Amino acid sequence: MNSVLSTLRIFEEVAARQPIGVSELSRATRIPKSSVQRCLVTLQQAGWLRIVDSGRGARWGVTMKALSVGLRGAGEQDLRDLAGPVIKRLAAETDETVHFALRDGDDVVIIAREDSTHAVRVFVETGTRLPLQATSSGVAILARLEPAETEEILKHDVNEFTEPLWSSEELREEIVRTAERGYAVNISTWFRPNVASIGAAVTGFAGRPIAALVLSMPEMRYEPSREKALAQLTTAAADEISRLVSAI
């Protein structure tokens, strides 16, 4: 029983302080390092924790499993159902397509979509998986992560696309701009030419980014003068979803 309680305590500390290393966890919990390491490995094998920074001294963070279990425990309600009304409202307010992307490791997965009524509109299939580095949703998430975790993700090459993505330095600069203005902008770059999109992060426990809301439109309908107004609507909708998640 003591080992179970210790493991649960380690999980709670990681969730509250992520990314965090073994030494920090040992000091915070007063549990010996060897026991902390065993708990971390057990939680990793069970799918609850992952290494988010493998540099000198591994640092740990939680996976999306905690969120999915928490949402199911709230009455069989998943994140898609929770966000659905907000997604529909944003699509109605802008008459552009809205995508909802859930972070899964170094990727995002499109789990919901509300289409524009325009004959020409952006379409990405629900279930599509894309690297964080390739989309405005991913950059919005990267801009809200701890710097160490962002750097770890940027070390991984993206080989899915024939057209080259931004260089690492360009992407870092875009992440900084995104953090400053509060939303990501993609104008016919990354993996979709002729598409403009605005992405805002959705956060969960302790303000950690877990997903992103993206407003997408054909580039021919994008007007720079409307960017701030559309971004305000998108970020407000993302913040509303964040509050709903935090209230569970």
What does this structure look like?
It contains 9 helices and 9 strands. It has 248 residues and is of the alpha+beta class. The protein folds into 2 domains: 2-63, Winged helix-like DNA-binding domain superfamily/Winged helix DNA-binding domain (Arc Repressor Mutant, subunit A, Orthogonal Bundle), CATH 1.10.10; 75-246, GAF domain (Beta-Lactamase, 2-Layer Sandwich), CATH 3.30.450. Helix 1 crosses helix 3 (33-45) and helix 5 runs antiparallel to helix 9 (227-246). The longest helix is centred in the last third of the chain and has 20 residues, at 227-246. The protein starts with a helix and ends with a helix.
Per CATH, the class of the largest domain reads Alpha Beta
- The parts where pLDDT drops under 50 for at least 5 residues are 72-77
Number of domains: 2
Average pLDDT works out at 84
| CATH topology-level fold name of the largest domain | Beta-Lactamase
Order of helices and strands: HEHHEEHHEEEHHHEEEH
